[in-house]
Write a structure and sequence with these properties.
Rossmann fold, eight-stranded mixed beta sheet, five-stranded parallel beta sheet, 21 strands, binds cytidine-5'-triphosphate
Length: 409
């Protein structure tokens, strides 16, 4: 299936729904989790069932919804203890002020709070309430207690609330919650405790205040790499050029424009990093001087003088050779001809651990599309050709190779 997400596939996730107006968004979250391949059980409070019928969740998950504490049939099938034991993650969305208060005090007065108390896996809280309730010192103190006990939280966000007022209290969007769930599940993964720097997108080199020299890179490959590294527990810094994509929850996101700014951001993040994956399409040349004001049209042709930009990857790999810095360096070779020969020359010239070669002139593996067909070449020259895959699946493989290199003694 297209929407499957490896970190969520086959994982037992309990979605706990409490009685807030945002309960309808929990249906969308549940649907997205199921599509991603998770095994989802829904547990609702009686108040939640006033907002959305349990049948909605049952239809989405194809499993019974846990609602009644005292149904013997349900107790044997999906009782709170077995649900709690089985849960690799419990997401409480929306989490009302009332439920937060109960959880902070260890109360177990309904199926949801009881399941949370019995839950062995991590719990992700998604608070949603009126801003006055959120700002109340009692709610803030309850959140403090819960976070100190290891509960994770995403949101609430600011915006329009059910009352019509604007303030903090909106439930995070289902996409954000799903992304935060991936981050929680990734903790303890093969890259946990390791910093990984990923670059993405194209740089823009200013000609004047309104024009630039740029390229077609969409950033999709680099963003997919950042998601894959984050899903394996890495502390990701994603440094990207201009793009409309959203980075992974939990990552440090740095937006840059020019090659020079990208180099400064990479050099700033690289000390201590376990890996650098340079998927960005960095301009090799920039206008020698950017005009301060818009350049006016001239009667004749005009010439643009260009100056070489720094090679970021070669700089980092070079520093590593001199300082013994252990950062694993992975580059991309975007080519339109002699793909493998050019890539092999680049891995040697830049002193890299891996290079990912792709033919950007092919319609299904070029700029802007969601698929890619790449060959991964290692420092010994061994080539691994991958079939046409989604950029997300290519990213998973590349980050697996990074993890393998890092595992080597
Ligand atoms: N790269 C870099 N800094 C640059 C140019 C490229 O770090 N100034 C990185 C890219 O992010 C990529 C790798 O180097 O990972 C190869 O980029 P590519 O543009 O394919 O190669 P170049 O070294 O620029 O060589 P050429 O343009 O001649 O193919």
């Amino acid at each position: 299936m297209d929407n499957e997400i490896p970190i969520l596939q086959g994982r037992h996730i309990v979605v706990g729904v409490t009685g807030g107006i945002a309960a309808y968004k929990a249906a969308d979250l549940t649907s997205q989790l199921v599509k991603a391949g998770a095994n989802v059980d829904v547990v609702m409070t009686p108040a939640a069932a006033e907002f959305v019928r349990p049948l909605t969740f049952q239809a989405l998950t194809h499993r019974p919804v846990a609602l009644d504490m005292f149904s013997l049939l349900q107790e044997t099938e999906i009782g709170h203890v077995s649900l709690g034991k089985r849960a690799e993650l419990m997401i409480i969305a929306p989490a009302t002020a009332n439920t937060l208060a109960k959880l902070a005090h260890g109360m177990a007065d309904n199926m949801l709070t009881t399941t949370a108390l019995a839950c062995r896996g991590p719990i992700l809280l998604v608070p949603a309430m009126e801003s006055g309730m959120w700002d109340n010192p009692a709610t803030l103190a309850n959140m403090d207690v819960l976070q100190q006990r290891g509960y994770h939280a995403v949101g609430p966000e600011s915006g329009r609330l059910a009352s019509g007022a604007t303030g903090t209290g909106r439930m995070a969007e289902p996409e954000t919650i799903l992304d935060a769930a991936r981050w929680v599940l990734g903790r303890g993964g093969p890259l946990s405790g390791m910093a990984v720097v990923v670059t993405a997108g194209g740089t823009r080199e200013a000609i004047d205040p309104v024009r630039f020299v740029g390229n077609h890179s969409s950033g999709k490959m680099g963003f997919a790499l950042a998601f894959a590294a984050r899903d394996r527990g890495a502390d990701v810094t994603l440094i990207h050029g201009t793009t409309s994509l959203s980075g992974p929850y939990g990552a440090k996101i740095v937006a840059v424009e020019s090659a020079e700014q990208m180099q400064a951001a990479v050099l700033d993040s690289i000390p201590g990093a376990a890996g650098l994956v340079m998927a960005a399409a960095v301009a090799d040349y920039r206008p020698t001087s950017a005009a301060e004001h818009k350049i006016k049209k001239q009667a004749e042709d005009m010439c643009l003088e260009l100056t070489r930009t720094p090679d970021i990857l070669a700089t980092v790999a070079g520093q590593r050779a001199r300082s013994g810095h252990p950062t694993v360096a992975i580059g991309f070779a975007a080519e339109t001809q002699d793909v493998l020969e050019n890539a092999r020359a680049k891995i040697a010239r830049k002193g890299l651990d891996l290079i990912v070669a792709n033919d950007v002139s092919a319609a299904d593996s070029g700029f802007g599309v969601d698929t890619n067909r790449v060959t991964i070449i290692d420092a010994a020259g061994r080539a691994e050709s991958l079939p046409l895959m989604s950029k997300a699946a290519v990213a998973e493989t590349i980050i697996d190779r990074l993890a393998e290199i890092l595992r080597r003694p």
